[in-house]
Amino acid sequence: MLSKLTTAGINGQFRTPRHIIRLMVDMLEPKPTDTIGDPACGTGGFLVGVMDYLLETYTSPEAVIVETDPETKAVEKIYVGDRLDDKAREHIRNGMFHGFDFDSTMLRIAAMNLMLHGVDDPGIHYQDTLSTGFTDKFPRQASEGFDVILANPPFKGSLDFEDVHSGLLRQVKTKKTELLFLALILRMLKTGGRSATIVPDGVLFGSSGAHRQLRELLVDQNQLEAVISLPSGVFKPYAGVSTGIVVFTKGGRTDNVFFYDVEADGRSLDDKREPVPQNDLPDCLARWRSRSPAIDSDRTSKAFYVSAEEIREAGYELSLGRYKKYVYEEEEYDPPQVVLERMKALNDEIASDLAELEEMLR
Description:
This protein is of the alpha/beta class. The chain contains 13 helices and 13 strands. The chain has a nine-stranded mixed sheet, with helices on both faces. A two-stranded antiparallel sheet has the order 2-3. It starts with 17 loop residues before the first helix and ends with a helix. The model has no long low-confidence stretch (mean pLDDT 90).
C-alpha cells in the first residue's frame, strides 16, 4: 500500500506535506468539541494533524514524556492529552473525525493511520462526495455537518454534469473538481464553521465565469479570511503546480482579507525536498495570530491586508501578485564600451594561447 504513495494518484491526488498540514491546523485551532471532516481525505493526513494538535495543546508541560533514541540521540516528545476530559476523549475516539474518498487503498491507509494515532473508531467512508449518492448515504454530514473542514481536493479532475449533485451546480456551474469541492465544503460546513483548503493558483485568478462565480460566493456570501500563497515546489516530486491556501468561514461577511507570501517552507523546492534553513511558515503563523488590518498595511511586506472593496474592484481576483508591491533595486553595470574592451582583451588572450598551443604541436 505504501508503494502507491511515491507517485501522484490517477485522480490527481497529491500527498500533502505534513508541515503544510500543521500550518493549516494551527491557523484554524480546532477544539476537542468540534466535528472535523475531509471530503477527499486520502491517507488521512489532515485528520491525524488535528489529533496531533489536540494532544499537544491539551497536554500539561509536566505530563510531556521525553524519550531519547540511544543510537541517534534524537529526542522525541510524547503528548498524552491529560487535560482532555472523558467526554472530549469519547468524542475524539468515536465521533470527531470523518473522512471520505473513493480510492479504497488510500482509505485503508487512512483508517490505519487514525487508529495508530488513538482514534478507535474513525469515520472513514468509501464515497465520491461530489455525487448525488453522498447526500443519500450521509445526509447529516453532506449538509451543515462539520465545524472544521481541512482539505486538499484533487486538482485536475473534470466530471460530467450528470455525476455531480445538482445543489453544487446551482452554486457554481462547472465540471472542474477544484471549484466543485469548494462549493461542497461550504455546503458541508455549519454556519460559522471554518475551513482551510489547498487550491491551485487558477482558482484564485481564473477568468472563466465559474471561477469568478466561486470567488464572488466566498467574498460576498461568506467570510473569506486569508489567502496564503505557497511556492510552486511544495508538492514535488508529485507535481510542480503552484498552489495557495484559502481560509474562510461559512456565513458572515468579508471586510478584509489577510494575504501572506510563503517563499520558502523549510525544504528545497526541487524533487529531493531536503531540509534548508529558509522557512517562512513560523513567521506566517505568527503574523496570522497577531494580524490586524490597521497594522498589516505594508504591501511590500510578506503579510498584508486587502479590503473586500478593492477585491471587488479587481474583478474578485485573489492572487497575491495582484495586490503585492515589489521593490526593485537598481543595478549598476559597466558602460558597453568598457565591457567590449574587456571582451577584446579576452579574445586576444585566447588567440595567444591557441597560437602557443599550435606551435607546441608542430
